[in-house]
Prior knowledge:
The complex is a heterodimer. Chain A is an alpha/beta fold. Chain A has 11 helices and 14 strands. The radius of gyration of chain B is 27 Å and the shape is elongated.
Amino acid sequence: MNIIETQGLGKRYRGTWALRDCTLAVPEGSVVALVGHNGAGKSTLLNLLTGLIGPTEGAASVLGGEPAGSSAALDGVAYVAQEAPLYQGLTVGETLRVIGCLNRRWDQQRAEVRLAELGIPLNRRVRKMSGGQQAQVALTLALARRPRLLVLDEPLAMLDPLARFDFMDTVMTAASRDGLSVVLSSHVLADLERVCDHLILLSQGRLQVAGKVTDLLAGHQVLSGPVSEATGLASQLPVVHVTAGADQARTLVSSGTAEPPDGWRRETLSLEEMVLGYLREPGLSVRSQEQEVTA
Amino acid sequence: MSVMTAPAATGARVQAVPWRKLAWVGWRQHRLALGGVAALLAGLCLWMLVSGLQMRSALSSFGLNACTPLTATSCSTQETVFINDYYSGAQVVAGVLTVIPVLIGVLAGVPVVARELETGTFRLSWTQGAGRTRWLLARLVLLAVAVTAGAWVVSAVFSWYDHPMVQLGQDSPLAPQVFGLTGVAFAAWTLAAFAISVCAGALIRRVIPAIVAAIAAWSGLLMLTVFWLRAHYQAPLTGMGLINSTTGTGAGTPWVLTQWWIQPGGTPASQSEIAGLSSQLRQAGGLPTAQAVQQWFAEQGYVKYFTYQPATRFWTFQLTEAGWLLALSLLLAAATVWLIRHRAT
Lengths: 295, 345
């Protein structure tokens, strides 16, 4: 079953397309990293998936065919939006009660246990807490709903490195224990590389790359060789990006099986290098490549 | 990536979050505004109770409650003194009350949507299992019922307070300064102010500008109603001679819309002509009471005509006004729900 499916999804704001022509399918149980520059359309895609906004064209469904924003979808999808919005005037305990009353399923005990572990007292006012604590409370609220899909928009932006680790640890524990599917967005891949098994790369409102991390890595290779022959290589192999040095060039190629020509040799490919290669070529649409990977 | 399957809704109906819980959330998040409204209304009621009781004790000490009918000549001097002492106070109360509906409406109504949009918390509240439509409807109904009921209590206290003035014929129950504060009109104007405020908040999406817009819209609507619309709920009647004698005192003073004098020749008299006659009367040392003026003009062959709405139409007018205000409020609520569902993000 696909936890997320989109078909030709697009959203236009005042004549500008924030997201266009996005077709995706993500199987249940995935942990998806949604990566792209600021303004690439990450939040737009997440807002569409959670039903907060409606599409200009195309369609999005979650939880195996429930239209995004429908009551069944809202019931099973928890969203921690950018900057983790909370009611600043309430205490943590009051926030739990308010959000609990807005949901059909609510695990109060789980929320209280988690907050106790974090050392956040229930009588603390939300506005008195640090950004990191607020993000933790927002995550606690989302997990207490026992969702099937957890959507986190830039969840780590407000956290210091140690808090990032704790935060991701909570997310991953929940994902493995409850079979939760997770989508996390970030403009920094390094935050997510450790945990994700799926990658969606957006650039300028277009889908660049989407797929299982292992498939994507298998579908790409990095070749190094003389700079003078880099142009020649591009005519033989599907080159994504060339990093030219003084005399050597590193070339990201979107074909995992092609034999390197004479004078070129394979290097180890990291997910980060692959993502950076695409991020540096924002105009490159790789939908054909994606289909090759899918097949 | 797995193989794409066509989206096929499972169709499984999710059991909805109970209204009771949603209403509790509405109460929890707006209880400060509701508390403020309640305190304001309680203060007003107390003020009217105290001055109403003072007015009543003065009424009996002047011996006015023994006068039957109240217009009897033996009472008129006492009545003039009483009115001089208390009418301005009653006007202040009425003046303050006039702005209360929009104050309550804005206080309770604007934050409902505008504050969520302004602070970004709509991304929290509208993505919960209950969904934004039920979230909105629950708090709209709760707040609307609360402010309407509160306003109705205040207008009931005002009706009691102002009763002596109506009884003495000082205020027509249809007169602009009191009509909107009595019966069901005050509650209806409060409900309309609330609905305008919620809708302005959803449209403008910021608290302060929405407050300004809601006050302007509501005040404009009130002006339009008082100065034009209300007089047309039913075709006005035309009377001649003394206003009270034509319409009878038992039913209360009518609401006079226009008045003019007809010359002995049968054509309307000009303003300057009437002013000239009035100064002649003063020089002749005539009493400046309405009755004396009327009599003196009649002796000169002038007849006064006027159009009016009889006080017996009070409840027809009240229900007409409350009816269209209720319809407007429901329309605005529907528009707000539409905005929230389709646009406001």
